[in-house]
Structures
1.
Amino acid sequence: MKRNLALRAVATAAATALLAGAFSVGALNSAQAATKTTVTLLSAGDITSLNPSTKGSNTTYNNLAASLTGFGFTYYNNNAELVMNTKFGSMKILKKAPKDFQLQYTVASGQTWSDGTKIDGVDLLLTHVISSSKFSKAAGLGDVADATKKPAFDSLGYGGAYDDNVVGEPKLSNGNMTLTVKYGKPLPDWELLAPGPSPVHALSLMADGKTSLQSASANAAAKAKFLKDFTSKNSANLTKMGKIWTSGYLVSKVDKDTNPLLLISNGGFIISKYVNKDSMTLVRNAKYSSGPAMSTKNPIKTVVIKVINENTAQVQALRNGDIDILYNTNPTGNDKIVLAGMTNVATQIKVGGSYSIFHLRTDTAFGFDDPYTGPFAGNSQRAKDLRRAFLLALPRVQMIDTLIKPVKADATPLDSQFTFQGTPAYNTITKSSGVDIYTKGTQAERTAQALALVKKYYPTASDTVAPVKISFLHADTPLRNALGKLVKAEALKAGFDVIETIPADMFADDTNSKSKFDVIMHGFSLNSVSQSAASDTYKTDGGNNAWGWSDSTLDSILASLESEILTPAQVTAKRLAADKIIMANAWGLALYAGPVITAYNKDLKNIKPAPVGNNITWNYFEWSY
Amino acid sequence: MDEIKKSTISTSDKNETGIESKETEGLSQRQIIVKRFIKHKAAMASLVTLIAIIVIVYTSLGVNIGTGRFKISIPGWWPYKIDQIDPEGALASSCNGGVTGCPTLDLAPPFLDGDGIRFGGHPFGTDIIGIDYFALVMRGAQQSIMVMLIVGTLGILIGTIVGAIAGFFGGIVDAVLMRVTDMFLVTPTIVIGAVIGFRFGNLGVAPLAIMLGLFAWMGLARFVRTEFLTLREREFVDAARVAGASDRRIIFKHILPNAIGIIVVVGTLLLSGAILAETALSYLGFGVRAPDVSLGLLISQYQGSFGISPWLFWWPGTLIISIALCVNFIGDGLRDAFDPRQRRHISMKERRKARELSEVPS
Amino acid sequence: MLQYILRRLGMMFVIVFGASFLAYNLQAYSSDPLSGFGESTAENKEYLILQMTRDLQLDVPPPIRYFSWLRGIVAGLWGDFNMGLTRDGLPVIEILAIAIPVTIKLVITATFLAIVLGISVGMITAIRQYSRFDYSMTFVSFLLFSLPIFWVAVLLKEFMAIQFNDFLVNPTIPPIAIVLYSLVFGLVAAGFVGGARLQFFLVLAGAALFAAALLYFASATQWFIEPSLGIFGVGFLALCNAAIVIQLISGLDSKKGRIAGFGVALVIIALYYPLQALMSADASLINVFGIFAITISVGSAIGYFVSTIDKRVYLRIGFFTALMSTVPIIVNRFMSEFAGYMNSDAVNGRPVPTLGQRNDLLTPEQIDNFWISGLDTAVHLVLPTIALTLISFAGYVRFSRGSLLEVLNMDYIRTARAKGLSERTVIVRHGMRNAMLPLTTILVNDFAGLLGGAIITEGVFAWQGMGQLFNTALRSYDLNLFMGVFILSATLTVLANFVSDLLYGVVDPRIRIRK
């Protein structure tokens, strides 16, 4: 008996000490960090192509590599401002008439590709080839509209604003350093249309079957040949190049045997190793001259992009130093504390380029077959009242307090569909858009108002009896699920029986989810800051208008935002008008601008996450240890 | 030649049979089995634990089955529900710098720096919005146990029927059934999970369990078939046939009772495999999905919080392990009970074949 | 027999065909590739949808689309094999060619370890059935059986990578930890050896003291930063190996066995310094094989010439002692690179990674150095190997225990005992050998299953092998890729089933394959 006791005591003590030892975190080693010259970035998904403009399952991840290997006329900085990259060149409006809008791009001289070939205006022409369906058709490269005539350059670019508005072919001048492009009408976001440079000589060489870097003269000749093929619309030669462009850049690995012509870069780095779905290694491009100069003190010499799909694995990898930067766009309070608690890691928390929003269904919308007949359907007073009641019952303050403030302490509910907090436009718009009925008083008062509205149509409703069944669609993430539960609990008090619909795939084309929701909570992320942003979401039968909203005044406001070059004040006024219409119809309500956590090796300097564009890598030239 | 001395290695093969026969004198087959099972301490302890777990899990939250008019609702004794938000529970008592409510469970007595043994309002803490984590874990366990039972029942039922028919009739019936079995065998469980998750994701856990059950019977079918192949050649089957018994009667009254041992044993393995398969599928996002809860889902949701609120990670894990462990031990006990001298041993290979399902979680 | 084999092979085609049709359609209906565009704000969304519909033939119903996929496979008959392109446009076969070696590399060590450890432990538990050790191992193996691997992975990363790397900053073990770890080690060792109470405590004390001494030594000399076995460590291990080999093959009582085993061990120790010359920085795998060839031939020769009768027994002792004693020499060589590896820029003082299969930051010189790149692979394998071993170890323990128990109940064992053979001979020669037979069939099945990939393990440890391919293919509606992985693993499974059925008949002649 005694021995047993002693044994047990020893075992208990052993277990306790083991646990204690295991849980105590020792000091971290940063002694050697001064010599570090490498950065390991994280990619949450597979990198699938060395050419981010070809079709692939995810351009976001391909762009991560592209952002390190290419530089063009503009980039977004950490304040979401579009910066003109004067090292590469400049652009200006040459002519601004209602039917003749000309833009002029001038490439700065003295830049070369990584193989030493001079960069000039000819390198900009490929943008036209891969974006203009008219050129494709005229040059006999295929017909974008005809599924049987697949274009030789099978790009993601056809059908965009460039394709819709460009007139004729771009013209070179000034010793091929200047390019002039003509459009059929003024384009408000013209700065975003700047063509990007592509190493056309490499394309031309590869079309000729070359598999190694060539001499300067051969490169120049290849470039001249491309120009000739372009101007003469040489179908055969362009088709050969199109084949390379479309599938040649799809490689499963990069190693010693890879054709170096595929890797030519004008960015700070050049790809040296790559294994499909696994990792990519990039080294310094010695001939980098197309962007801001690299930091001179302890700059980065090697960048690795590591693909890690699994969330917890990413966090543990950061803690162990296996990766250096983690960019979490969908953090919970727990995530923040985990990341902030790591002694080897620094964190930055700021609003990213995404915002969360509630949209209420009003009608059968673009892309749906089943007619929508739920409680929010139509423009009757009853539908409007019920919609308003639901929006009133959204516990936005509680949602922010419980789930967003633990991440970003100064978060507040977002009150506009078109602008973010912290901008002058936001204050102007929210002051008079009519959003104040959702911000006045306490949530209890608003829920009571909501219940009163519901009672008008459902007399049995009370804070325990919920006669209005609402199907509530949202994505399956921890944050969304938690938000959803808060909505459900509060809406119940206003007479709404909220049934959460959480499909595996939120926009899947099946009857369970897509056509059967009354309200959707989702996030929009912005790829760019533009005047016409999001108009597809709000205009009648817009491609993203899955809620069936339709209002002719709103349509005309959106149309003018899309096609007129306006002053900031004019834009604000139009957006205010649009927000007012949405408020008056009780169509939807914004929730919050999503905070993003950037956690990174604390020895790494000048990490400045940008809300749009290349979030992390936009200023790699400034990085250093 | 070298002289070989007697080694010190010992065995326990000492007249086992003799002891056995004395002990079981005058008892019916069933009594012998029950007696042997009761003597298997680990299995008995596991059985008691498992029953205790099931009772706690189902009574704490009560049972809610079905929807609408067909809803059966039995309230439980636990004060919190899985959709009940307790704001004080979450934010007021958060600890470790975390945003989740701390567990109020404390088993350390005061002299070990604890506050004495207490359960408190939220013994397992709360999640990020103040939902009681004990309630969530119980709900998760309900779901996981339900998956286990549905998969087990279906797997045993189909496996026994297919195996029995194939083994009893033999010939072309056997060949066809066995090749169909092979076909099911190579279809990965995860694909089934993906299809169900996509098409019927929000119908709850039952369709998932049923589909998994439809793909869980192959191992058992093979065993039952082999068993039937040998048993049908035995004298008592001939005797029954001569006496004019129908095929159905021979299968159900004569052969099946003799094959029950292997069915029970392989069945328990199927059960523990099912709970792990559910866990793995939910983890991969192909199983139970929010707003519903399962143990695997809870782990995958909260594994990221491991560093700051480890209890969110430990509790569901502990429950999964406990249930699977109990079922495994019960299976071990049943094997010993049905098979005292281990003549007809269920090897690990056979075990694993029987739990083809659990091949997902590696 | 031939007819049987041909019929089974024919059946296999039918099964794989049926299963692939089923799988193709299940997967095709399991998601919607166009759904990704729901959230897209691209202006040219309509074109993108058109493009995808065209490329993935979404306008063709899946059952018909299946046959266009099948055509590529069947075309393999006339050398025109085509598994199609992935959604990203890469040939499926190229992707598989990258993934297969990754998966093999990941699972092979773990499977090997699980088999060796599992069978050893399983056989010991069978020999000592119903002992304390048997009960605790039964518990442990059931426990491991019940562990979700992703759960284990999180814990392993936390404690064996992150915390261990933190520990390496100042690798001294506090005395209390030394005491506890030694006691635990002593308990395990005593459990293994067993015996009466006195022996149990003697072994416990001995093993604990030994472990304490080792830990103290490691702590005092900063061994974890600059690990090395040295000639003493290598020598000690060689002698231990020799003892185990002798006990298993001839018994430690055999004088000639002792001469052969320990003699070989001593020769290997003597070869320690000369062999270093073969392990320079520019060595390669060939050198390693060379070293093994030298030691094994020396060892076998010694074994062969030790005795004039029963030469094969002593040859085996010499062979296995040499084989197993050479391993520490090689390991020691890898260890000597550890300090340099750990302090290099790429590793930055944290040698145990939580994921990945290689360090992408190693310099070309480091990659070219066989020892450093080997070390790099080894540290990347540590965590996933432990995780996989823990999970599959349990299966082998239970299997070999049951198998040996079954054999030990056989009449011929009774006969062997009755004719006065020593217990060692009965168990090793008659028991273990026969218990191992059914194992061969399992191994076939297991290795076939391996290629299917360890879906979760590969995911949490970011190894891009077959399991990951399968997972991503399922998620991203990459039908061709999905089918590529599927057809490979299905074929192997069916083939392994067939082979193990055949082997069953070969191994156990009592089982006749019915015509």
2.
Amino acid sequence: MAGAHDSDVMSTADRLVHMANQIARNLEAEGDARAVEMTADHIRQFWDPLMRQRIVQLALDRPGALSPIAAAAIERIAAA
Amino acid sequence: MGFTRETDHGTPPALVTGRNVTLTIDGEQVTLPEGTSIMRAASLSGGSIPKLCATDNVESFGSCRLCLVEVEGRAGYPASCTTPVAEGMVVRTQTERLKQLRRGVMELYISDHPLDCLTCAANGDCELQDQAGAVGLRDVRYGYDGATNMGQPKDQSNPYFDFDPSKCIVCSRCVRACDEVQGTFALTIEGMGFNSKIAASQNDSFLASDCVSCGACVQACPTASLIEKKVVETGTPDRAVVTTCAYCGVGCTFRAEMRGQELVRMVPWKDGKANRGHSCVKGRFAWGYAQHQERILSPMIRASVSEPWREVSWDEAIAHTASEFRRIQDKYGRLAVGGITSSRCTNEETFLVQKLIRQGFGNNNVDTCARVCHSPTGYGLKTTFGTSAGTQDFDSVEQADVILVIGANPTDAHPVFGSRMKQRLRPKNGKAGAKLIVIDPRRIDLVKSPHIAAEHHLPLRPGTNVALLTAMAHVVATEKLYDEAFIRTRCDWDEFQDWADFVSEASRSPEAIEPLTGVRAADLRAAARLYATGGNAAIYYGLGVTEHSQGSSTVMAIANLAMATGNIGREGVGVNPLRGQNNVQGACDMGSFPHEFSGYRHVSDAAVRETFEAAWGVTLDSEPGLRIPNMLDAATDGSFKGLFIQGEDILQSDPNTHHVAAGLAAMECVVVQDLFLNETANYAHVFLPGSTFLEKDGTFTNAERRIQMVRKVMAPLNGYGDWEVVQLVANAMGLGWNYTHPSQIMDEIAALTPTFAGVHYDRLEAEGSLQWPANDAAPDGTPTMHIDGFVRGKGKFVVTDYVPTDEKTGPRFPLLLTTGRILSHYNVGAQTRRTANTAWHPEDRLEIHPLDAENRGIKEGDWVSLKSRAGETTLRALITERVAPGVVYTTFHHPDTQANVITTDYSDWATNCPEYKVTAVQVGLSNGPSDWQEDYAEQARQSRRIMTVEAAE
């Protein structure tokens, strides 16, 4: 039944990108450098390891999908 | 021993002045606070002056003339209820003359009262009967031939109590309870003299009147005139056990009055510090679900959700559950399973579920329904103040001068606190009422109700909370209304200045954001000035703050305002989240979130982890686990396969029902532990019957951080308390738990959680309740937080930038839907729909403004379709100006409406708390239920089949 409905639910991948961008956008007012750091921290604190792995991969697969702050934050997570 | 009511001292305690007076009552010298009535003084010193119209829940009235006393040096016979004690006073409560006067008064009462005591429902629990005995009434000289008020028809319209005017003695206690305690003003005395009668509203039936069925009048009635139907049916109780209500986060305590194993009535406990002797229709009356025929009492399993359920033994169900979780972990990995703790269950039960997951499953995939309500409160208040909880106790409202209510509807969703708030909003004893600011898209009842009118109602457009609160901050900063001394000592001045610069930008002024919020700049400025300069200002908020894509930012914006104006750290002020569920505060405290242990300590903190590892004998995961929406995503992606759900109906309560259903359908083992086959159970493979709050011991923690006892008043119908069931599962997984009583679980919580270090059952028994933190630093608990400093050290100002939600209106979906609760029902309605509360709200309705209705040709009561990007449902329209044009509103209490088919999967940026309060929708006329509703009803029917077992020969 659920499948029969033409809802525009995001895929998990789309949602992760959306969430990362949303976090970055809400922290943007802190200034770029701090926003990058805080976004990375936030994701480390609240996302499980599989979600983090997935967003790191998505950042590579979908260049431009992440906002500059989100992309920089994910780079930090990937590097750690 | 027999049953007795709580002692009634006749009049309320005197206002505290700190001064005492000494007087003599019947030869005994007593010292009491000034302002105490003679009646109360006599009662407190062990006496009892006859009385009828006096009761200590309401102010004295002085009408019955039964409580007369003699005071040396004073002429006449003053009423002891209205006469305050005085220094050196000499009072006599029993003299020949008084006896004669009282008998005469009593004779008049009884001459117009039926003498059917033996068959009367109040027999043995009637003050009129008791007082007739106390004054020695032996004869009624007036006969029964004159005019009488007897033989009038009863009003039995209310599902929970009857009104028999023939038994009314017009003491007006019911009227005063309705006015003073509940604040609804539904009852009046009609007519004069001998013809005076109690009337509900304009002579309506009780059910049709403004009465909210809180039962305060029934409790106040000294006769059988207003009496619980259950007492009429059953008889009087023979014992009473004090326990805590299992509905909302107010945490009212009640005396569960029992006869044997049968609950006769719930009477609010006067010593309860949350409710102070008051209740609402749910807590007092709506407990019939506990014995409802649809309650499932046997465990059941099935291999697939297309099969009917098969009843099995507890042993089989538990063994099956344990082996399924182990099988799934062996096949899909350690992280493929998780669980959800329940805010409906006790602290002890919640603690055990998260322990089962962390210790037994070996991961942190545990979450709780706070995810979908107050997770932003946890995040926001922890970030700004350092503690994930409200700052005050409920009594604090009595000291407030300005009350700001944002995104909360206390008179419906937290009714008992709503009444306490209304008591403060009305002038009393010469003190002006507090001023009220309401920020809400709807004109909630508080905005204008009898003897209360909000100073300001800011009807903002849903989704613009942060813009509005930042504009209030703009006024505070630019007009220099902030409390510099407070900020300099308690916060970081530089941080404040950064924040002040941010909010002071012209683009954030009330004028600049007016087009966005729809709130007139002048009103917003006036409200901000009142909040900042009106004396003690307290903020109360609810899910209209948290359930947004900027829920966490809104909480922080609220905290910023409170800090900037110095409204933190004393009575009468503060930031007060009104928590939804009875134990949602407790569930959060107990480590139900995937990133933290009990007491809000992150799982990555090695020192904290080591204490748990030492206690539990396992290595614990240092990585955060999945939150509920993440679990559902992982399930649809195929990496998450098993879920243990205690007492939560995520299919009905979580957003975007289609997505939840798809996630559940993709799992191999869904275990539901609940009272009923709820909507989520349609997708479950194991059903473990749950127990009600009446059937187990434990504790709940309310919105004030108050830990209160829940006491077992009857044996669990299903055989086990929920904590016992979880222990069985844990032991089947080899965890070797051996709790024999919930008190031992609390001892473990105390040992592992610094803020709970002083919380033990013996202390709770002795104190009645404790507000955490309760430990060596605060042995008696903490009614007000952040008194000398913030828990985090310096209070933190956080810049809250307004980011519009991605959920936008447009030509396809031009209206904004927001959702909420109604007084008579509770959340998904699993309990209240199974009580007579359906008399008030048999279905969810769509509130729509007359303009929007007219544009669509919709008339009152028409079936309308409600469509969003996520789904479609139908329900009947209710045309009202409570909602602004462009906004529609509905409740989500009924599964056949499924309001969450409509809500989207947008969520709070910091916590993933769903954006329930903003959904772009279209509304149009409809012929009846949508395809989804029909499919769903059929699917639900199919999945609820239980295989009938042939009786053995």
3.
Amino acid sequence: MQKVADYQIIEELGEDGIFRYFRATPPARLNQSSSVRVRALKRQIGESAISRLSQHLAVATKANSDKVLRDLEVIQDSAMLAIAGEDSNLGTLADPAPDLDRSDVLRIVGEALESLDELHSLGITHSDIRPQNIRLDTNRAKLSNPGVLHVINQGQTLPGTHSQIPVEYTHPDLIRGRLPDRKTDLWAMGVTLHRALSGTSIFPQAPTTSLLNTLRHMQIQGPTLSSSLTESEKDLVSRMLGINGAETGTLENLVKTIEETAGGSRTENDDVEA
Amino acid sequence: MSKLNYYDCGIHRGAGAVARFSSACIVTPGSDNDFEALASMFGQINELSTSAQVSEVIRAHLNRLTVFAALVVDGDSATAFRRGSMEIEVGGVQLEFLPGAEEHTISPFIDGSRIEIFATGSESPGPVAPYNLTTGIAPGAGISMTPAEFDKYPTSNDSASGVDLPVQEAAAANTVLAVDDQEETDSGYTQMVEEPAAEQVEVSPEQEAAEDFHNVVLSELPSNELPPLAEVTAKNAPIDSAGFIIFDDGMTYGLNRSYTIGRNPESEEGFEPLKISTGNETISRNHATLTIDGSQVSVSDLGSTNGTFIWNAVNQAWNQVEPNSTIKIEPGTTVALGRRAFVFEGVDSDPRSYQEPYEMPIKE
């Protein structure tokens, strides 16, 4: 069986521009009965970056585990750096184990917003919100895998063309060097909701010939919301993106609105089924 | 520097070649066509005394080889070479060579990193990985060589290391190479190493904790060093940035700070080190600076070996930045450093189509 440090790998879960992901059995010293997720950095970083990374992730471990899947350890094994964190059992919003309808998607994003509120209350941003990092547990959705790119390489805003992460989750200001904050996290959550409901990008006209052209389009053009969204869903996404004159309001208020929208969506679904 | 601790140069009939030095390992499943080049290369390397010289010899022989991989460590950096269907992993991370590139610089290289070099080929699905510098070479590789020819070249002229590697069939399992002369540990904590099931033993939690890795338990770290998010947000807006730069591989950096760009740039006050890798050695350690002053962006060359160039779209030619001089650049400008390039994109750049690919100033 393969190992990363003293974690026994159960399966490889894929990779993106920054990490390779694994499900693993934790070592006995952790007293952790369930499997964990290990993300192994695909490149080497220096000691100072490792220290910054550890400090950054340590803050998030103070979050309520009912709302946020926490990272457990940063492991340095020879030249490899890996982060071990809690796992969940029902997949992610990008690849959910159960079938989801619109009201489920709204509920999940609402719960992820509560997770985000928990992180923000600790003074940290998530900075890598996307469907893959909204994990589904038996009881609720939780955020996982706080972003680390800006911590590892200060000033770097996109990892490169080997990344399999669409750039639309990155607020246009972030690309120019803005530090992640509440606004940029909410932007990513809005893109996530839009993607989960419509299956499309908020920049449907963005050229795909080169990353530079995509970024130029994003810097100049505003988002275009899918016509498949209901008016209330569009309003929600607009509030999260901070577009169309929509006031974002508090996270608490957003969660309340999303619950109401989910309720409405549930009723519409019930009517269709009837 | 004393002579490299050369203790095995395994050009073995029907088995490919593996050589391990104090600071280099070389692996090739070989090909009959490669024989002369390999023999010449190994023979020359045996007379060398520095890692830089080893790299030079490998570089000189690369275009005569069809299937080959090597990693040469030089202080805090390393150079990987690859030809054909070979893959190299350092610390469990597979090196990503730029398209067409045969070299890859690893900087910083962490001493003691574990190296895996393996072949991928259509004949055997998945990694073959039969090469182990400790146990020898698996069959199936194949550079043919007669004993007489073999004798013409040294194979183990330095026994100071006390190791004279036998040629033997390696286990079919994935194996790990070490790039220095340290003995391989039996810790089992080699990244992504196949462990034979029969050899699994019970390990107590205490034993596990004593193994060869370093873990930081996040919940035990102090976590009160970040300012409240509201404070971060307040500082953060409005954004003060001149735009962004995007490299040819998509790496993007915000221009809310100045950078020193290079293969392994030093930190200087007011300049963030921006480390870029290259498929060869065309980037200097400290190559250029990118200075941000409000919305103005300037490039300076730091006396780099291969120069810094700015693409002149009107004349369709590269203009070299004089060493230690500063050139102001406009949004949309393409800047080349060795064989890497980036485009500077301003905050309010006019939309324009991406320029057609151009020839780089530094050629292969």
4.
Amino acid sequence: MKIVINGQSAVVAEQISLSEALANYGARPPFAVAVNGDFVPRSQCEIKTLNEGDSIELLSPIQGG
Amino acid sequence: MDSFTLYGEQIRSRLLIGSALYPSPSIMTESIVASGADIVTVSLRRQQSAQAGDDFWQLIKNTGLKVLPNTAGCHSVKEAVTLAQMCREVFATDWIKLELIGDEYNLQPDPFALLEATKILLDEGFKVLPYCTDDLVLCQRLADLGCEVLMPWGAPIGTGKGLLNPYNLRMIRERLPSHTLIVDAGLGLPSHACQALELGYDAVLLNSAIAGAGCPVTMSHAFRSAVEAGRYSYLAKAMPEKDVASPSTPTMGMPFWHQN
């Protein structure tokens, strides 16, 4: 199935967990994740199952004013 | 210099500094150190494949300073709340500099969305530092919600114009005497920071004025001195302004007094 990670399309297995999808993407800590605009705490990433068309935001620290 | 309180924590430096826009990572680090700041602002963005983000975060951690994450760039309550939640997890702090932009041209905060997001985040246990306009009633409403810290702008972000409306800022200080007030954004010169402290503001938060200077490290020193000068000036209570001159040198014993 197709999902979107940080604006880029990706093809992943059906019923994949969020943590698996992040590992496949190569996510490096520290980061936080949102799916379809909702924050998903780190503790929930293992049990969160993705669906077709889900949009993941994977964010990490940057400079800020 | 005396400290100020930020949600129960004593903060020594009255200069909060941003981490963006510096010519290089090393100049960023030097500038932050030179500022004497206790708090540095940071943000979150999409993770890039390059190593740059990791290096930046390591540099910030090496400073040993407290971090204040922001929600810069958010235009809706939903975006700002989600980003705040993500910041809390990554940066392990309840502090959030809540930015909710209402107008793209001057990056003016949206007061209505700001109130809504502030309420949600306070209810979730965040310690909200709202970036707001210098509107007294807005500041009162934010205080009513439970904000212990308010951050009205001096001028639009990155303009360097200084305190565009000192009257408004003075009124907010007078009407909210027990709240921690920080002028956030729009400062360009150390004298602007000094003026904010002279008005009784507890601190200033700035980034572009240092990062955009010809020599950021030297400018950082200048702002550090300016906030100290402004604070001491406020504590010293300035003389009353008068319209008529009065001599400072004694006239008693003046030679040649009115000889002509």
